[in-house]
Amino acid sequence: MAPGLLHHIELNVSDLGKTTEFWGWFLEELGYRPFQEWEKGRSWKLEDTYIVFVQAEDRFLDPPYHRSRVGLNHLAFQAESQSHVDELTAKLRERGIPLLYSDRYPFAGGKTHYAVFFEDPDRIKVELVAP
Length: 131
Prior knowledge:
It is globular, with a radius of gyration of 15 Å. 21% of the residues lie in helices and 32% in strands. Strand 2 and strand 3 form a beta hairpin.
């Protein structure tokens, strides 16, 4: 393992059930596999990196998350290709997941930045970008 590589990300979420439904299929489409599961959390792993989702306690749910506040703005994942971005974009639409910047898809990030942007149930912005 190389020093400096990302080991894991842990996100507190408002509704673990909705989060699991939302993230499970997407992460598995990218090659992640279920890793850990317990009453208040779930994780998925790809090689040496894993992503953890933990149910936030009620006392921490207000105010809700917003990416414009201090903290995490978004998570960006590498796609295999532009066609992979298109394929997963179609699946997002089939699932009724609204796309961000859909009027500029697939170049919302710039003329050479082929990507799709969307939000998870807590409105955390997610990006899938082609190499």
